[in-house]
């Protein structure tokens, strides 16, 4: 059947737009809705996938669900009284995003199945030249919302290319693969893997879970909403907003404080240890799943099913280092080879080495990857970057969260972008670009605070840190502080040019 989205993909690309948005996840969709509301008629959203949803379109693995409460995991301007559970599943979130896009009437601005290959700043014409596999387009302003967790990271393991069975990444699940009764191996024990493992344990013949580092896993307080709750959320004025505020504040008061005072996390650590004992009775297995770093150093995972799944007879936790993959199995450092029919790599994403950075060329043709290689993945307020005029990056450096809703961050950034666009129109500005010294000050303050956090002090390696050990992914303060920082476009922090060329 032809969907709205397939239809829209067929529409030709414009040759020039005021704003070009990359990515159709929460960030791109939210931007489109707000630009439309502001009366910006001249914009387009490109996405290589087929339909809105971003990470919630791509991650369709069994058990995929959000670990942020549903009431918080939606746009503030499009509340969803229809969530069926306190923690939503991927199909529900994806359906919510599709419905929101349809109801907002913005789908005609999207071009799906279009891959952005390159974007280069043209200093003479002061536009972005964007090449795609569907043709070229120029834009005065570019907003990237392609996500920090969108490019699968495949493990660099000797022999993996020689594997003769099926192999796929958690974020590119092969739904045609029949896993029933098969010998399946999952590499990784992060947020994705711990959702996948209990589901696979129900169907496969044998499951090997390859753990390099044991994660902290606390109980998942998930439940179905009762009919009465759903009716109340739908019909009692203000209840959903109150609920949302309560969930937000509960997370806001506890979690940012514990990142800098890890002792506050002790009760959560006790809860996680109890979770291990509840799910696993074998002391040896208990010991092997117990982490050796402070809770919070890596993302804290939530599951009631993961440990009981590991405790099943047909499931083995393998903690010996993987030496190599053979055409038919996995060999560990002790020389043992375990046969495998299907290999699932739940090995995470390119986070601090985002491929998009190689394809964005700013002033003087320098790629974002070149700039970030020198100074680390940095931006001003996580959104704008010196040397890259008129570029706004949603979910940019140091805007990630381990404890609350990224939708809140995204909405804060969208507000900032709207402020910038309004200022540009009102003051006749052709370009805005953060002053390098302002960006440097912002980041050195941020990194100073970062050094005191559990992410640095907790005794673990994680995807939060780059190759130099700097945390360039997470926001280290409260979300209300981030909202305040992004509440208004601070023109004074920017070098601007007016029309015609004049720099102030
Ligand atoms: O990826 P990860 P993820 N050999 O990078 C292991 C969000 N998310 O997809 O810990 C062996 O966290 C690696 O081991 P180690 C969330 O923000 C949210 O699970 O590095 N093992 C680790 O165990 C999350 O944090 C939700 O030692 C290798 C795993 O693979 C982020 O996405 C659900 C290896 C990778 O874990 C990423 O989560 C899912 C190798 N060569 C994701 N390379 C929810 O909302 C890597 N590993 C619930």
What would you say about this model in short?
Pfam families: Pyr_redox_3. With 504 residues, this protein is of the alpha/beta class. It has helices at 4-9, 26-37, 55-58, 90-104, 191-203, 227-235, 239-260, 266-279, 283-288, 306-310, 368-375, 406-427, 436-450, 454-457, 479-485, and strands spanning 16-22, 43-47, 110-112, 116-122, 127-132, 135-144, 166-169, 183-187, 206-210, 217-218, 301-302, 315-318, 322-325, 329-332, 337-339, 342-345, 360-361, 391-393, 429-434, 494-498, 502-503.
Description:
With about 500 residues, this protein is an alpha/beta fold. The chain has helices spanning about 5-10, 25-35, 55-60, 90-105, 190-205, 225-235, 240-260, 265-280, 285-290, 305-310, 370-375, 405-425, 435-450, 455, 480-485; strands at about 15-20, 45, 110, 115-120, 125-130, 135-145, 165-170, 185, 205-210, 215-220, 300, 315-320, 320-325, 330, 335-340, 340-345, 360, 390-395, 430-435, 495-500, 500-504. The strands form five sheets. Strands 1, 2, 3, 4, 5, 6, 17 and 18 form an eight-stranded mixed beta sheet that branches. A five-stranded parallel beta sheet has the order 7-16-8-9-12, covered by helices on one side. The protein has a three-stranded antiparallel beta sheet with strand order 13-14-15, with no helix packed on it. It is globular. About 45% of the residues are buried. The protein binds 3-acetylpyridine adenine dinucleotide. 3-acetylpyridine adenine dinucleotide binds near residues 65, 195 and 349.
